[in-house]
Design a protein that fits this description.
- The chain is α/β, with parallel strands linked by helices.
- Helices cover about 30% and strands about 20% of the residues.
- It has 3 domains: about 160 residues, Methylthiotransferase, N-terminal domain (Rossmann fold, 3-Layer(aba) Sandwich), CATH 3.40.50.12160; about 230 residues, pyruvate-formate lyase- activating enzyme (Alpha-Beta Horseshoe), CATH 3.80.30; about 60 residues, OB fold (Dihydrolipoamide Acetyltransferase, E2P) (Beta Barrel), CATH 2.40.50.
- The protein contains 12 helices and 18 strands.
- The strands form 5 sheets. A 5-stranded parallel beta sheet has the order 2-1-3-4-5, with helices on both faces.
- Helix 11 packs parallel to helix 12.
Length: about 450
């Protein structure tokens, strides 16, 4: 019996880590399986659904055969992601037969039921109550209050030592290639007290790294009409940084006020790491994308960030082959990369997405040209990464341990590396007595294209 499928790592550069299921259901306990596809924001939704179900006495099954029903949390960001979601639904129907669909693709119920009419229910993104209602109808709860205890931190689908912290939902941008606002709505920020309360519980339960996520992290709180400060992300970041865990910022649009976040990184409150979706560099391409940024000013901002915090790591994702992209526009992107010298880079080849306004743009780029440009872009990004990592040889740095294999080799991450999407640092020997989640100091003695190797110092 195959285990429930998760995202193939080649599909998206901002892939969520594979969900980890460690629960062991009691005898006779009603159990639910979960297939969580898409980005880390969807993974958080899966955690919230499973936490609610565990609180009602349900067990969580890591495979189809042990589940009374299966929830498939879908992704609808790209047409290829939609196809993957339909495939996962089909697999769940074949292997289990009782399937509830939720997530971004659930915003198109007719699309799902047209392909899979036997699904029990379809709900949209973050419609937790409707998912619970569908589970209750398919598998009635049967809690045992003396046994079914819920951990204080809730159900987590990531390793114990790190956790995603979603601070808002939705997005106010109108990028032509994206349908996220149509699926998840406009920006809605969680109250700061709720975010901090969740973060404190996670840290108290042993989480050493908080990965802050949203659709637009730097816009957090700007949807509040009555607010005490213009940019609430600044005080939220400061408060999170006081909890004693690593705090990593994802999906940060390069607004001018981001410059005020960087001193927190220089002071050690927040990790010196910014994940910023630049998408392109040519002004005409950005205009066709309807992106809220200008490439020329972005280079100035990058220089300012590095002046404040020289050790800052910059990660981004880009789209090549966007409709109308000329060879000159693409070359501008390569030249911009030479100037920007980003540390970590992912890249999409443009795809049409049903409902996106970019579909109607003229001069779509042939697939073979997209592939050729993707190859050239990644060759450039790899060369930059290799040079930057080579410059770290001989340096001492703190790393967090993600895994120690049976041969005693520790897979770690530096402050410059987010889980699954960035590189690793490996410790080949001297790992006796170390444990997963521990933060240790190493000296880097070897570098590759994306990864480092080091010796334990403390």
């Amino acid at each position: 019996m195959p285990r429930m499928s998760q995202n193939p790592p080649s599909l998206r550069p901002d892939l969520a880590p594979s969900a980890r299921f460690s629960d062991t259901p009691r005898a006779g306990q009603p159990t639910i399986g979960m297939v969580s596809l898409g980005c880390p924001k969807a993974l958080v939704d899966s955690e919230r659904i499973l936490t609610r179900l565990r609180a009602e006495g349900y067990g969580i099954s890591p495979d189809y055969s042990g589940a009374d029903a299966v929830i498939v949390n879908t992704c609808g960001f790209l047409d290829s992601a939609k196809a993957e979601s339909l495939e996962a639904i089909g697999e769940a129907l074949t292997e289990n037969g009782r399937v509830i669909v939720t997530g971004c693709l659930g915003a198109e119920p007719d699309y799902i039921t047209g392909a899979h009419p036997k699904v029990l229910a379809v709900t949209g993104p973050h419609q937790y109550e409707q998912v619970l209602d569908a589970v209750h109808a398919a598998v009635p709860p049967d809690p045992d209050p003396f046994i079914d205890l819920l951990p204080a931190s809730g159900v987590k689908l990531t390793p114990r030592h790190y956790s995603y912290l979603k601070i808002s939902e939705g997005c106010n941008h109108t990028c032509k290639f994206c349908i996220i606002p149509d699926m998840r709505g406009l920006l809605t920020s969680r109250p700061a007290k709720a975010v901090l309360r969740e973060a404190e519980k996670l840290v108290d339960s042993g989480v050493r790294e908080l990965l802050v996520i949203s659709q637009d992290t730097s816009a957090y709180g700007t949807d509040w009409k009555d607010r005490d400060e213009k940019f609430p992300i600044l005080s939220l970041a400061r408060d999170l940084g006081s909890l004693g865990a690593w705090v990593r910022m994802h999906y940060v649009y390069p607004y001018p006020h981001v410059r005020e976040l960087v001193p927190l990184m220089a002071d050690g409150l927040v990790l010196p790491y910014l994940d910023i979706p630049f998408q392109h560099a040519h002004p005409d391409t950005l205009k066709r994308m309807a992106r809220p940024a200008a490439a020329a000013r972005t280079l100035d901002e990058i220089a300012a960030w590095r002046d404040i915090c020289p050790d800052i790591t910059l990660r981004s994702t880009f789209i090549v082959g966007y409709p109308g992209e000329t060879e000159d526009e693409f070359q501008t992107l390569l030249d911009w990369m030479d100037e920007a010298q980003l540390d970590r880079v992912g890249c999409f080849q443009y795809e049409n997405v049903a409902g996106a306004r970019s579909n109607a743009l003229p001069d779509h780029v042939p697939d073979e040209v997209k592939q050729e440009r993707w190859d050239r872009f990644m060759e450039k990004a790899q060369a930059i990464s290799e040079a930057k990592l080579a410059a770290k040889v001989g340096r001492r740095m703190d790393v967090i341990i993600d895994d120690i294999d049976e041969d005693g080799i520790a897979t770690c991450r530096t402050k410059a590396d987010a889980p699954e999407i960035d590189g690793n640092l490996f410790i080949d020997d001297g790992t006796e007595g170390l444990s997963v989640g521990e933060i240790v100091t190493v000296e880097v003695d070897e570098a590759g294209e994306y990864d480092l190797w080091g010796q334990r110092i403390s």
